[in-house]
Automatic annotation (TrEMBL):
PANTHER family: LOG FAMILY PROTEIN YJL055W. It comes from Ganoderma sinense ZZ0214-1. Pfam families: Lysine_decarbox (PF03641). This is Uncharacterized protein. Gene3D superfamilies: 3.40.50.450.
Amino acid sequence: MTSTGGHGGSHESGCMRAIRTWTQRALPGRRNRTSIKGEREAGNRQAPPSGTTPTTVATTTTTQSKAISAPFNVTMTIPQNQKETETRAVTVFCASSKGTDIAFVNAAKSLGKALADAGRPLVYGGGSHGLMGTVSGAALAAGGDVTGVVPYAMVVAGGERGQVGGANANANASADRATYVALEEQGREKVVVNSMHERKAEMAKRSCAFIGLPGGYGTFEEVLEVVCWSQIGIHRKPVLVLNVHGYWNPLRELVRNGIKSGFILEKNEQLLRFVEGPKDHAEHENFDWGKAAVEALDTWENIASSHFYNWHLRKDGKAEEDTLGAT
């Protein structure tokens, strides 16, 4: 496995430091995942409202919250009645469709399992179909913690829907039924927000890194937005994409064209790291993409950069903690 981009600086990864010290620290009030999950299921789970689909379940965060420190100097917002702890969670951006190749589905399964095995909670868009359902289902099956962040409009509509139609519509619908997972029945936390913009901000608050699986316009936009946030100093969190069957190659070429044309600094190519599989794409279907992704996170190094803006400033003149985790 090789990976390119995001690996040329001298600053040690905050996630890497967190991993190395995780088992050495005695965090106040620390509990293992089993007990946390049991407490959540016993005390926080809510019965779904009548008439809702299996996607419209679970716990929601309160509006009263406070900020805490986390790896990468991440500031995570949590309800005031929960204990403070560092976050090792990873946000995964992916599609509500499964795509046309089984390698995409297998990569999602591999990633969900690997994050759970590494003790890294999964944060994602909350869908139960396609690659969303696959990655979250795999994480839950492996004993991981999963948080889905969903705009209210999607909750009311019964969940996020795949955007693929045409000649492949029936095949994709059948495949999505096969990958559907009733997450609320397995103790997933659901966070309901008001808009797509709030969804992305909430996902960013709750994680110390981002991974993009193959996906459509929504996935493209999510990946590029968090890269932009790195560029302008809102955060310095790792951003990876899993280049299954070279899916993300056109994005790499687009970035390089931006550099060539004078719109992107050459050093900023490293803000996005492409996790590569075997040279023989025939091996991508069974490649352990999850292991490769976790290894890429563990070896991430931030590039040296100077930030142009102070994101703590507010127009009323008061400086506030930046909840998206600028460093």
